[in-house]
Amino acid sequence: MACAIAREVRDGETLAVGTLAPIPASGALLAHFTHAPRATVVILNHPDFWPFGNGSKEFYDYAQRGKFDLFFLSGGQIDRHGNLNLITVGDHARPKVRFPGGAGAAMLYYLPRRVIVFRAEHTPRSLVERVDTVASPGSTPPDVVRPGGPWKVVTPRCTFRFERAQARLVVEALHPGVTRAELQRETGFALEYDPQAGVTPEPSVGELEVLRTRVREAVARIYPRYAESAFQA
Amino acid sequence: MPVAGHVGSDYDRLRPEFRVIPNPFAPAERLMLVPPIRPDVALIHAIAATADGTLLLDHMEDDALLAQASRVVVASTERVVGSREALRAAGDGVLLPGIHVSAFVEAAGGARPTLVRGVYPADARHIEEYVAASADDATFKRYLDRYVHG
């Protein structure tokens, strides 16, 4: 997942990684340490990658001005239209599950030019036909100011591309070893495929080397437990 | 206060106090307004303070903003120093002038088990103990008896 994310990062752009997001942080740093040395990488609360000096307000204000090219979000539920649910599952008044809440996710899905959605669980309960509560809509009416929006959805099994015109997710690449039949069983909506859909290239020797050294070291400063377990050979 | 984004999400339905209006500067656009949060009391912890209540606060948090939104501000501080210069030298942070602060008390270690940046780190083991203890009332009472009432 980190490699699939890293390959989406463009050199010279400004990208930010929010809270509880060690996988995007790893992908952003992998890109920064390889093909995107001139990218400005912001990682929430990281001592070396947090340029702001006056709280998260300064970060949110910067984002509201549309200054980020790339951002990362997740959702307890993600649906085929790119809607994200960070609020509740079931009836909102008597929820079956209560997630942490949207925080800035309903702004951060609109203003950054491209948003990569990540989810470490690819199951019928996480990838659904229709989310129960929309914290962050995948698409909006034309009278809503929205310079950006969903770009890709990356899971441990595949990468989806968001088609803005049809407001839908299509599979762009299956990760190595995953079949279309398996992927359909693991997904809560009928899959549609890009005509050019292929297989995600395996992480290269060089990518793995950088992940297990510089990326691991930098990620350990804010995610020590993750860094201990996630970079095994 | 206007916020970007949000229009078209379920916030319209779940939070009736939020309003969607035409943007007065660009009437073809819709914009969401949210009412300001006005806490009665803010409780904040400072890295250091001077006698007039001026606080040195963590620059990664929004405590200064919280203090300015609240009617009453009660602070605790790791230590009290003698001058504005000593406050600036006490660590990396932002200054909140004492005019915003209703009352403060010196309480070294007052943020434990969470951190005070540059003074002490978060105590991850203790936070895990707290989370485990909070699973039911009996274990939580034992936690309170040991660490709060004890």
Would you mind describing this structure in some detail?
The complex is a heterodimer of chains A (233) and B (150). By secondary structure, chain A is α/β, with parallel strands linked by helices. In chain A, 43% of the residues are buried. Helices cover 25% and strands 23% of the residues of chain A. In chain A, a hairpin with a 3-residue loop joins β10 and β11. In chain A, α2 crosses α6. Chain A has seven helices and 13 strands. With 150 residues, chain B is an alpha/beta fold. Chain B has a three-stranded antiparallel beta sheet, with no helix packed on it. The relative contact order of chain B is 0.14. The mean pLDDT of chain B is 94.
Mean pLDDT of chain A: 94
For the sheet with most strands of chain A, the description reads: 8 strands, mixed
Class of secondary structure makeup of chain A: alpha/beta
Number of DSSP strand runs of chain B: 9
Shape of chain B: extended
Distance between the termini of chain B: 45 Å
Radius of gyration of chain B: 20 Å
Instruction: Give the termini distance of chain A in whole angstroms.
Output: 15 Å
Q: Which radius of gyration of chain A do the C-alpha atoms yield?
A: 17 Å
Oligomeric organization of the protein chains: heterodimer
User: Stretches of chain A where pLDDT falls below 50 for ≥5 residues?
Assistant: none
Order of helices and strands of chain B: EHEEEEEHEHEEHH
